[in-house]
Write the structure tokens for this entry.
Amino acid sequence: MPEGRRRLIAIDLDGTLYGRGGAVSAANVRAIAAARAAGHRVVIATGRSWLESREARAALRDHVDDDDVLIGAGGAIVSRLADGRTLDRDRMDAESTTAVGRCLARHGHHVQLLQDPDTAQCDYLLVGDRLDPTLSWWLDRYGHRTRTLADLPTRPELDHTVRVGTVTTARELATVVAELRRDLGDRLTIHHWHAVGPPDGRDRPELVEVFAPGTSKWRAIERLCGRWRIDPADTVAIGDGLNDLEMIDAAGLGIAVENADDRVLEVADRRVAAHDRDGVAEAISAVLDGRW
């Protein structure tokens, strides 16, 4: 272990580590390897699940140890990076899951229930007979294990759910998001933003995701700090989107890439180049050489 502080460095994927097209640059891979060699913990912290983080896992496969982890689903699941085994999760209760699912279905949307794959033996429960084309593309892209149901399940099937959501166009989501925030926003975590869609898609898709109360990347980071005996003040968070806002605001050093949402830029301590210009490598370099 080198002299100096041992830090936990959390890095978002989409819009941060991933460049245009979803690739991880060689410069960013080298920077992460250098941080690990210097004794720092490097953690991927993403809205994607472990399975959906395939590109990052492939890029970093030569720099992964058995105790490396991935914070996935916006903080709802912490998985072992090497094999996806679940280490920690924030499960939604059955009553909340049902309330969100009924709201989505009432407005004519399919319902996606992200499962803990270790206990559910599948990745998604899908309710409804008409999946949005963006979701179909996403499921095919990563080879998800799914079960399609005509109606919302009951317990015990709901006991493995960590996120409930749907994806469609912005126009179609506006009403349902407003209703969810009005009726459930004080007791659940609700995110609404642009979704990753097929490159030839005409309308930019949006998604709504609902989690157990308090679920966030930062809460998962705090738990890892306790596990690894790292002072939360010795954390670095690099990101761009609204599900990065809390970790960038709360981390000892919060870094926003240039293309970040304005609200993220406002709370960041530092700003680096955009995701397609090796901003992560720039940030890690400044940490390693002691400038930050």
In short: Residues 170-184 form the longest helix (15 residues).
